[in-house]
Backbone:
């Protein structure tokens, strides 16, 4: 914010006009320079220029320099569109946030902290950074796979032409090549699409946050390289393998001439490896225990202690024959000696199955610490399972499709949407988050992540919250989804959240947050943008038309969109509640210590405002004004009264900052 003049207590705020102006000056270095300015402000001069010589001199100690700077050969990935992708990181979004008041005010949603955002995820991430920077513990995304077909085509909002790219610092040749990316499904197009989203998403993560990215082998190497070398650093990127095909396909590869792709990848990026929960499941041991033989020692769980190793022979260690209670001879490769086995059997610690002739298994009682490796769980420490490969035959793409079809009662919609199974995402969330953390999915599709979060909360009695983002991509003509009445992907996701919430509630009766709030990102019209750019705030002119009407979307009053956008911009988040105050006929909105003045009035509300500041509003420390709503006389009166108020309370209370946004 900058002052209008030295004696003016009112400052020009970060409104749409300022954003449009600043975006014109963004280069491919702006984003990184802004981060440097926050971390190392001492290396920037009064004009905001980075003093590289001063920065370099700070490391002139050779021993320190050798420790900090790597002498290894560096590697970076370059592609058509990279500069433009970096420019997108530095530009602010010009979209605004409209709340779905009808949905949000329903009893099950009004106090919910779960969020569903309709809109482009790059714009959504930029909004989220204003309120949730460093607060997201776990991100899961399943971005579009670039198979070279129509599954992915670069379709970001191309409001730029060749001349715009040249103004951004691209050469004429680079500008032409970037223009040609639109509508393409090349590697460069995919990387141009993903780089700004992942770069900005990193800043949403907590210090111990993690992001899981599902991907197939078409872009796996490129994705890993931009994560390693451009965003998180090589030491903070790893890979998990997920078996996507069920066991039903096993044994069906006879006479094939191609490889079958049974696995996909999950690229894992984190800020602090040591803070990751290294387990993908914390078993609910108690549910697995039983006591079919009425053992007086209580419920027990059986685990394997042998395998049918036909390559073994009598010379192998612990390869021996045992006799079941029914007299059946069983020869196996055991994990314990025969002496140990006989001792355990005598103590009743061996289970022979219901009929007394099954393969022997060891019994572990509910009050004992498990120390035996079993086929059910590989127990390491604290009853957690380590895994870099998720290979569960019952957790696959077929299951994910079936889950969606059963929830929506629509056959065939699962094959169209191809969602991941909820339990896969549930396992990943458990790796990367704790009880009350925020989970983000900005490629939410059919909203599987919402179901996974609710399911985990219900099972563990926890309070994780989710934020989902999905572009309102239209369903295809003659598709199953279109025939079922879904016009876009968001409608499918919202329906799934409601259905899965009801299902989980019916099955568990858990006391968790089943609701969610909906917000839509809208783009102001070109007419509004033209008026904003031409508006001269130094004259403080007032248009005859009401500027709030330009922010009216979906029959929601313009002031609701302005207020919601500002609340997020000022760090209060999407779900922050506000209080309405009547200032002599002018409705103002109070959020924490900020007062928002948006609605125009013919009355002299400033006197009433000043009186309230001296009494019940004495905790206000900031007033934000929608500059188009007030006349020159009203603005002057506001400035004078706030200045007098600040002079009167100096050294007694916190002075009030007044900020005008255009």
Residues:
């Amino acid at each position: 914010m900058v002052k209008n003049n030295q004696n003016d207590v009112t400052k020009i705020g970060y409104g749409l006009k300022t954003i449009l102006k600043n975006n014109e000056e963004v280069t491919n270095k702006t984003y990184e320079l802004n981060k440097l300015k926050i971390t190392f402000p001492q290396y920037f001069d009064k004009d905001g220029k980075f003093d590289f010589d001063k920065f370099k001199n700070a490391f002139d100690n050779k021993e320190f320099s050798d420790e900090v700077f790597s002498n290894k050969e560096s590697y970076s990935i370059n592609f058509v569109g990279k500069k433009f992708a970096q420019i997108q990181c530095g530009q602010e979004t010009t979209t605004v946030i409209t709340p779905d008041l009808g949905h949000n005010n329903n009893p099950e949603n009004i106090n919910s902290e779960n969020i569903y955002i309709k809109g482009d995820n790059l714009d959504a991430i930029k909004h989220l950074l204003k309120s949730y920077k460093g607060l997201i513990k776990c991100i899961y995304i399943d971005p579009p796979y670039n198979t070279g077909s129509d599954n992915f085509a670069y379709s970001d909002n191309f409001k730029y032409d060749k001349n715009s790219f040249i103004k951004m610092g691209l050469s004429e040749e680079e500008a032409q090549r970037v223009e040609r990316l639109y509508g393409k499904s090349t590697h460069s197009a995919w990387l141009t699409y993903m780089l700004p989203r992942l770069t900005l998403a990193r800043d949403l993560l907590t210090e111990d946050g993690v992001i899981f990215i599902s991907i197939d082998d078409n872009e796996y190497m490129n994705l890993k390289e931009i994560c390693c070398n451009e965003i998180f650093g090589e030491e903070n990127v790893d890979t998990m393998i997920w078996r996507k095909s069920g066991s039903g396909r096993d044994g069906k590869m006879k006479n094939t001439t191609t490889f079958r792709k049974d696995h996909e990848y999950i690229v894992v990026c984190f800020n602090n490896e040591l803070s990751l929960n290294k387990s993908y499941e914390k078993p609910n041991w108690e549910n697995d225990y039983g006591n079919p033989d009425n053992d007086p020692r209580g419920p027990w769980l059986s685990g394997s202690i042998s395998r049918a190793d036909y390559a073994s022979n009598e010379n192998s260690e612990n390869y021996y024959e045992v006799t079941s209670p029914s007299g059946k001879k069983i020869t196996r490769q055991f994990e314990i000696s025969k002496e140990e086995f006989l001792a355990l059997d005598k103590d009743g610690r061996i289970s022979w199955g219901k009929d007394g002739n099954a393969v022997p298994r060891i019994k572990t009682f509910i009050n004992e610490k498990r120390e035996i490796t079993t086929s059910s769980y590989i127990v390491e420490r604290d009853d957690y399972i380590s895994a870099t490969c998720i290979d569960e035959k019952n957790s696959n793409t077929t299951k994910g499709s079936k889950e969606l079809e059963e929830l929506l009662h629509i056959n065939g919609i699962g094959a169209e949407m191809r969602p991941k199974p909820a339990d896969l995402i549930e396992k990943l969330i458990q790796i990367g988050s704790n009880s009350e953390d925020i989970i983000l999915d900005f490629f939410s599709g059919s909203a599987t992540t919402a179901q996974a979060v609710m399911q985990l909360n219900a099972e563990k009695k926890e309070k994780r919250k989710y934020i989902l983002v999905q572009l309102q991509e239209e369903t295809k003509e003659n598709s199953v989804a279109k025939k079922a009445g879904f016009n876009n992907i968001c409608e499918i996701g919202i329906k799934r959240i409601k259905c899965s919430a009801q299902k989980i509630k019916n099955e568990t009766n858990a006391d968790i947050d089943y609701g969610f709030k909906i917000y839509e990102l809208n783009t102001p019209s070109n007419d509004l943008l033209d008026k904003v750019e031409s508006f001269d705030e130094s004259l403080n002119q007032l248009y005859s038309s009401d500027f709030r009407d330009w922010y009216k979307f979906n029959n929601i009053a313009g002031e609701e969109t302005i207020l919601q956008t500002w609340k997020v911009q000022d760090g209060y988040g999407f779900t922050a509640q506000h209080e309405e105050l009547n200032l002599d006929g002018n409705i103002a909105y109070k959020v924490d210590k900020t007062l928002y003045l948006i609605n125009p009035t013919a009355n002299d509300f400033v006197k009433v405002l000043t009186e309230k500041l001296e009494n019940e509003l004495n905790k206000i420390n900031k007033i934000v004004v929608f500059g188009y709503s007030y006349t020159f006389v009203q603005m002057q009166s506001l400035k004078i009264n706030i200045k007098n108020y600040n002079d009167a309370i100096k050294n007694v209370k916190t002075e009030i900052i007044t900020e005008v946004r255009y």
The first strand starts at residue 2 and ends at 3.
